[in-house]
Amino acid sequence: MHAYRSHNCGDLTAANAGETIRLSGWVHRVRDHGGVLFVDLRDHYGMTQVLADSDSPAFAEMEKLRAETVIRIDGRVKLRDESLINPKLPTGEIEVYATELEVLGAADELPLPVFGDQDYPEETRLTYRFLDLRRETLHNNIMLRSKVIQSIRKRMWERDFTEFQTPIITASSPEGARDFLVPSRLHPGKFYALPQAPQQFKQLIMVAGFDKYFQIAPCFRDEDPRADRSPTDFYQLDMEMSFVDQEDVFASIQPVVQGLFEEFGKGRKVDTEWPRIPYAEAMLKYGSDKPDLRNPIEMQIVSEHFRGSGFAIFAKLLEQDGTEVRAIPAPTGGSRKFADRMNAFAQQQGLPGMGYILWRKGENGEIEAAGPVAKNIGPERTEAIRQQLGLGIGDAAFFLGGKPEAFEGVAGRARNEIGRELGLTDENQFKFAWIVDFPMYEKDDEGKIDFSHNPFSMPQGGLDALNGDPLAVKGYQYDLACNGYELISGAIRNHKPEIMFKAFELAGYGADEVEKRFGGMVKAFRYGAPPHGGCAAGIDRIVMLLADEANIREVIMFPMNQRAEDLMMNAPSEPSNEQMRELRLRVLPKE
Predict the structure, then answer these.
(1) SUPFAM superfamilies attached here (predicted)?
(2) For 407, which of 92, 153, 227, 321 is 20 to 30 Å away at the CA?
(3) How far apart are the C-alpha atoms of 336 and 354, rounded to whole Å?
């Protein structure tokens, strides 16, 4: 017999009854039933119930066992009494009577329990991640992640994409986030960068004549953490194609992503119609460029109903250029109690509140409007708003005003909250939409023109489009939204040097700077570059949605905490003096 096991802990069934077997695994829990000891023995594959009574040679050793001790058990497989069968376990028809026990790895007292799924402080869970990973839910999440990546690879190869690997140590590149810099020992004073994405390399692969590329690519960005984003590194399905337009990219990636959600979505409905929504429309209707379309609410502009009205706050606001008032319809939300809850939500978001109108049945049986807004603008304007929004008795509408860029984010969050509170959001499905026609440029906080998306994108209209107002230029850029998350980002690339120089010039990069920072790509484009485009899908976020988790750290094996620290490996750590001397670096004291 093998030194450690003849079977794993998920193997044994009624067909093995009477056999002498050997199992190894972790002690999940020990139960004492008055002279009979039961051990739930767990390994990667499952759980087997082991028992010993006072006649068993293993009994004395079993009495000493602590949870999570690693043991080897020899014993006989017995059928359970019919009343004791556990239908939830593949091994639930049998138990193993232990005849010999050996401790392979002793366990100290646990800093967090593995048995059960009780909540525990995240800092403790990350410090002892090797224990946390033994817990059933997290273990299953990591296994799901592995299967998703396996399925991605299979689907991409089936669609004639070829997998290539690109460098991990490279040059700094503006990808919208901060680089992680790596000092060079051989070139003192110079630094490499960890790639924010394989952007330039995948474009060069197209220039080199390889037609369809993909990679499960590690990406590194020095970002502030969020629940749906890792602060240091993440993995993406990276892909690029030659001689394609936007619709070709969509047609290639949709079957891959749709197939993943159908395969691993646990029976939830997967939307097969993926609409194209222009960025401006998404911000207007949903207050977000990653809208949750499971929620049917669409915001509308209602400025004309407030212009010159008795509702002074909005009337005066609308006298300023660039301002508007938007309504968030709330079907079935026509109660004062709900309006108070939404105002409390708005105050949590830093607003004084939201205006609202409630529609009810009046004493005469006719529909009537209630609330401070209705009183101030009068019945005619109120009725016009109701008609525009398509609302009726028992419904409500909430209002926000100002410059759109100042209130859109809050409006989008309020829309999501209203959809959840009123039960309008269908939680049992995945709804996708391509967000297209992103603006190429935006103004930063100092009023300077900068790229708003991927700097290597082709502007719609080519070189001619770059001769007018930069803020009016749209790019061939696109994101895929699913249930309120951005899953994919991509673009048709700018493959012409003259357009590339002009595009970067508008963002403040002179020709010399472009040559210095992107010389390899500029040089390549001068030797025959095909039209090309692609995208990248966030694997961590896809698995997070499939696992029905709200925190991305629940689907990453060894994540950082919210402060970008690895509590288990104690990173980042201070370098030794010898390392610093080799790199010719000095650390400034903390201010």
Answers:
(1) Class II aaRS and biotin synthetases, GAD domain-like, Nucleic acid-binding proteins
(2) 227
(3) 13
* Angle formed by the axes of helices 539-546 and 246-264, nearest 10°: 40
Positions at the binding site for L-aspartate: 175, 221, 453, 493
- Tokens 């993926």, located at residue: 274
Q: Which residues fall in the annotated binding site?
A: 175, 221-223, 453, 486, 493, 538-541
Using CA atoms, how far apart are residues 332 and 393, in angstroms rounded to an integer? 8
List, edge to edge, every strand of the sheet that includes 355-361.
300-301, 324-330, 396-402, 355-361, 367-370
pLDDT, tens digit (0-9, with 9 covering 90-100), for 369-393: 999 999 999 999 999 999 999 999 9
Cis peptide upstream of residue 231 (ω within 30 degrees of 0): no
Please, what's the b/e burial string for 406-436 (b: 16 or more CB within 10 A of its CB; e: otherwise)?
ebbebbbbbbbbbbebbebbeeeebbbbbbb
CA 25 to chain CA centroid, Å, is 34
pLDDT band, very low/low/confident/very high, at 301 (cuts 50, 70, 90)? very high
Contacts by 334-338, CB closer than 8 A, 24 or more apart: 334/358, 334/359, 334/360, 334/393, 334/394, 334/395, 334/396, 335/396, 338/396, 338/421, 338/422
Q: What is the mean pLDDT of residues 103-130?
A: 93
* pLDDT value at residue 175: 60
Q: Which one, of 459, 445, 551, lies nearest residue 505 by Cα?
A: 459
AA letter at 143:
M
The CA-based diameter of the chain, rounded to the nearest angstrom, is: 92
Pick from 146-155, 349-358, 392-401, 489-498: least confident: 349-358
Q: What is the pLDDT of residue 195?
A: 94
pLDDT tens figures, 318-373: 999 999 999 999 999 999 999 999 999 999 998 888 999 999 988 888 899 999 99
One-letter-per-residue 3-state SS of 188-220 = CCCEEEECCCCHHHHHHHHHCCCCEEEEEEEEE
Predicted pLDDT at 176? 63
CA pair distance 541, 546, nearest whole angstrom: 9
Closest listed residue to residue 8, CA positions, set 129, 131, 90: 90
Q: How confident is the model at residue 415 (pLDDT cuts 50, 70, 90)?
A: very high
8 A C-beta contact, residue 415 and residue 287 = yes
- C-alpha separations of 302 from 260, 316, 400, 401 in Å: 41, 15, 10, 10
Q: Which residue carries 């990276």 as its tokens?
A: 238
Binding residues for ATP: 221-223, 486, 538-541
Distance of CA 110 to the CA centre of its chain: 31
Q: Tell me the average pLDDT across 572-583.
A: 92
Q: For residue 233, give the nearest of 241, 222, 244 by alpha carbon.
A: 222
Q: Of 190, 193, 174, 173, which Cα lies nearest the Cα of 182? A: 193
Give the model's confidence band at 394: pLDDT under 50 very low, under 70 low, under 90 confident, else very high: very high
254: phi then psi, degrees, rounded to nearest 5: -60, -45
Torsion angle, alpha carbons of 6, 12, 14, 20, to 10: 30
Average pLDDT score over the chain: 94
